[in-house]
Amino acid sequence: LRQRQRGPHRPPSPGPGPHRDTGLSPHTGVVPFVALLLLQRRPVAGRALLVTGSGCPGHGLCRSNVQEQTRRQVAVLNATAQELFSLYLKCQGEPFSSETDKLCNPAGIFFPAFRVNRTSERKEVMVAMYKLFAFLNASLGNITRDQEELNPMAKELLERLHNTTKTTRGLISNLTCLLCKNYNIFQVDVRYGDSSKGKSAFKKKQQGCQVLRKYVQVIGQAARVLLPHLSPS
Amino acid sequence: MFSGWNWVACGFYLVLNICSPDASGGLVQSCGHIIPESPVLPLGSNFTALCILNESCLDFGNIYANQIIWKIKNRVVPKEQYREINRTVSSVTFNDTSSLGTPLTCNILADGQIEQNIYGITVTVGLAPEKPKNLSCIVHQVSRLTYHMTCTWDPGRHTFLDTEFRLRYCWPEDIFPDCIPKGVNNSCTFYDVHFFVNTEIWVEATNALGKAESDPLVLDPVDIVKPLSPQNLSVISEVLPTVLKLSWENWISHTVIRLKFNIRYRISGDTNWIEVPSEDTASQRTSFSVQGLRPYTEYVFSIRCMKQDGVGYWSDWSEEKSGITTEDKPSKGPSIWRIIDVLQSPASWTVHLLWKALKPFEANGVILQYEVTVRDKSSLSNPLKKYNVTSTNHTLQLPNGTYEVTVIARNSAGASPPSVLLIPASNSKAPVKDLRALPKHDKLWVGWTAPNSYVLKYVIEWCMMSSSSDCIIEWQIAPGDVQGIDLKGIKPFKCYLITVYPLYADGQGSGQSVKAYLKQDRPSKGPIVQTKKVGKAEAVLTWNHLTVDEQNGFIRNYTIVYKTIDGNETVVTVDPSKTEYTLSPLTSDTLYTVRMMASTDNGSRSGPDFTFTTQKFGKGEIEAIVVPVCLAFLLIVLLGVLFCFNKRDL
């Protein structure tokens, strides 16, 4: 690897969809060369790992402040989640504003489980976070695409969706960095939800509502779990 | 590639060839080509071009590479630079492309010595881009949720070529679309900024001669933010008169960036800002109480913010907002003085009490009224007299005696401490000594020697003397430990009467006065002289003193100048206190012209001329001649009568 690695030029996100991604980047379906090299370094179960991190892509940018950055990103998402959800409901109009509990019950959709707590292993927490935010990044892409079509004049909602997506994308980058550098993990199975493409306007709104409602719950949980793991020591 | 003339020629030859294929001296169109085609060359390098003739061209006869003529912009290249490679190829070499122009053409002298153009190329000379330097970036907060990142760099030397600059940025695993500057080559703005990810930013410069990259910047964009200034600043008066509370809205969420602040303020109308110590505002907040202010004073505030850890940039100062502190009671009582008018009756005074309005930082609010009390100290049975006054003076009729006057200033917050003035029945205490007044730049300095006793304070009175208006007294208090004071607002060329009174705890000294000018000038008029009495050999001149308005200074002397028609001038200096003078000896029965000049330290002014004629005879001279003559005549007549009577008797 070159000293200063720019990384391969990647095409824009192909859009969400119910597919499995076997690489750390959710953006392509092709395992990059670098990842192939790293695959050769898959640790043998039970053997202690030499965690150097120097083989991780962009390791020069993966610095000691990544933990603090990750903590700040989760704090930002946690602080803005409820506002985003409230604004989303307002912009969808009726019956979503008045029948939120009934229509936005997230029981009807897939959402990655976040079964970690403060005492969980840090590595487990990082992996769970990665799965959560990879899913969220794709879902926000869906929701943003749908709202651009259904509510093109809702500038503030679109701006908030865009900002949340940006933060999520940055969070994924930092988690990728932490997982690779600290735990030599370069492969995480991620499962995505159903795409809203082809669904009716009502279904699109409802799916977005369900995802965001669950997001509000989970992000608070993630902030509570994560902060002790990422607080400055 | 071909000149206009050559197109015509080629067209002509084409027609000829079509019409008469056997004609000799055929076409040179498409006869060859030059390599390299349209090169881009580094400035100062060497360059060789080859002109390759087509085999088909040679069939036209007598066309060989050694007939090739190279031209730059229609100027022939010296043959020393040519080389014949073979029968069909000629090269030309330039050792320094700095002097190479465009186009470079390959031409040939065909039959009939006609120069024909074979091919031409454009040559571009320039430089490879230098490594861009001094790359720096700043993230501007544009609105609540929108941030733009602008980066600037030094593009290096001018390349003389189209050079493309691209600003590139990437994360560990992502590369973002490049930013391509529009219209400039040293700056570009990203409109999509992500915080909390280490980002690598660099500049690539590319042209036909090469590529250069700047050193990369690695940063988290959250560390280079210039936030929007705090918005909706408001200033609220508090109960305490020395405190104002500021509150504002931060347009950047504390979850994104925790802020620290600078607060500055100034008194309205003043230009000097005072800053609140930065350690007091070094944390996230939306309000702050500024203390230590003056009561009842309008202050202007402004505030700015930046990331709390000091990494990044300060915002611009916010819009200014004003507020007024609440009132406090006056901090001191007004200075008091009196002017006593005893002209009407020595046993009864008209006392004009005067006091100075408090300065704003002493008044601490709007003075609603002054409370004046007058206590007769000579007779304790007399009741205390109280007056509520809204002006800064009050006139009383009081019998001659000793009085203690107290004045309190009151505003809505309370009353000032009392100011006290003792008015004794007589000013019997020691006065000041050596009172003098001297001009000092634009002020009049009044100095004195203190009396031996302890003086509480001095009162200095002054008024401008004028013959056309009253001498209106102005006054000022000086502390008891000074022996001089500057008077301001003194006009030049005006006479001022200055009086100094020492005030003691138990009485008052008599006033000592002096007259003074800030600046003197020559009189505005000269004295008008006339004769009071004219004799045979003397004349008594008389004049009036100039009015104080005409003097413009202290009159040091008068000068009388007189002369006859054909005589010399005689000059006499007269004391300024005089109003008469006798000129003698004069010649009798002679016309004299006289004028007077008044002089100050700064010049003189003459009055109008006056003429008079001395008498022919002195006083009593005519009587001394006429009486004896008449007596002699009477005697002669008597003697004659007596003679006649005697002659008849005989």
TrEMBL record, chain A:
Function: LIF has the capacity to induce terminal differentiation in leukemic cells. Its activities include the induction of hematopoietic differentiation in normal and myeloid leukemia cells, the induction of neuronal cell differentiation, and the stimulation of acute-phase protein synthesis in hepatocytes.
Source organism of the structure: Pardalotus punctatus (spotted pardalote)
Organismal lineage: Eukaryota, Metazoa, Chordata, Craniata, Vertebrata
Protein name stated in the entry: Leukemia inhibitory factor
Record's subcellular location: Secreted
Keywords per UniProt: Cytokine, Secreted
GO annotation, cellular component aspect: extracellular space
Keyword Magnesium attached: no
Any GO BP: leukemia inhibitory factor signaling pathway
Predominant location category: secreted
GO molecular function: cytokine activity; growth factor activity; leukemia inhibitory factor receptor binding
Pfam families xref list: LIF_OSM
From TrEMBL, chain B:
Keyword Disulfide bond attached: yes
Signal peptide: 1-25
Database matches in InterPro entries: FN3_dom, FN3_sf, Hematopoietin_rcpt_Gp130_CS, Ig-like_fold, IgC2-like_lig-bd, Type1_Cytokine_Rcpt_Type2
Listed GO biological process terms: interleukin-6-mediated signaling pathway
Transmembrane residue ranges: 625-645
Topological relation to the membrane, as annotated: Single-pass type I membrane protein
Start and end residues of each Fibronectin type-III domain: 131-228, 229-328, 333-431, 523-617
Family of the protein in this entry: Belongs to the type I cytokine receptor family. Type 2 subfamily.
Protein's recorded name: Interleukin-6 receptor subunit beta
The organism of origin for this protein: Pardalotus punctatus (spotted pardalote)
